[in-house]
Amino acid sequence: MRNIIIYLLISLSFVFTQEVVVWVSNANDSHIELSMTNTTGVGGFQFTVIADASLGAIFGEAFGGASEEAGFMISTNEEGLIIGFSMTGEEIMPGDSILLANMNWTIPDDVAGYITIELIPNSFAGGNPPVALDAVIGEPYLYGDNINFGCTDPEAINYDPDATVDDGSCV
Predict the structure, then answer these.
(1) Taking a C-beta distance cutoff of 8 angstroms, is the pair 34, 98 a contact?
(2) Among 6, 9, 21, 103, whose Cα sits 20 to 30 Å from the Cα of 77?
(3) Would strands 44-51 and 131-137 be described as parallel, antiparallel, or unpaired?
(4) Vertex 40, ends 140 and 85: CA angle to 5°?
(5) Is 0.85 surpassed by the pTM of this model?
(6) Measured between alpha carbons, how far is 127 from 20 in angstroms, rounded to an integer?
(7) Dihedral over Cα of 160, 114, 108, 111: its sign
(8) Residue pLDDT, tens place only, 82-139
(9) pLDDT confidence of 42, banded at 50, 70, 90?
């Protein structure tokens, strides 16, 4: 029994030390910057950058940062999906880093809204052989100068014509 408890404690401590936190750290009218804090090497990732509908975003190529330094192949689509991995077994070393320095995006002028990340199960992997890493997202990034939270659905009874970011309160 004692050996089982020790094994479980060691296993759980190993799992919890493999955490990855990823978030949108900066944005301007043409690029988004994504950052990451990781406690173990990252050999690959897949997640989606999600922009508030009020931004009307179309996403493009992603490059730069620790991913490029580690020689990762990066693939994206217009909906914000990003896949990055190494063909040679390289990893992004543990620490705080800019995961991708630039993700191109196209948005209309004078818009405001939030940008966040959506993870899928096993969004991050590392190690040899690769294992899934426990990953979480940071706080959403608020983009724009005129940010007003409220209901942005004109069909809702509590529609707020001054709202620029939908806060989920529409009825």
Answers:
(1) yes
(2) 21
(3) unpaired
(4) 75
(5) no
(6) 13
(7) positive
(8) 999 999 999 999 999 999 999 999 999 888 888 999 999 899 999 888 899 999 999 9
(9) very high
